Amino acid sequence: SFLHLAIIHEEKGRSLEVIRQMAGNQAFLDFQNNLSQTPLHLAVITDQPEIAENLLKAGCDPEIRDFRGNTPLHIACEQGSLRSVSVLTQHCQQHHLPSVLQATNYNGHTCLHLASIQGYLAVVEYLLSLGADVNAQEPCNGRTALHLAVDLQNSDLVSLLVKHGADVNKVTYQGYSPYQLTWGRDNTSIQEQLKHLTAADLQMLPESEDEESSESESEFTEDELMYDDCRIGGRQLAF
Question: Whole-model pTM?
Answer without folding.
Answer: 0.81
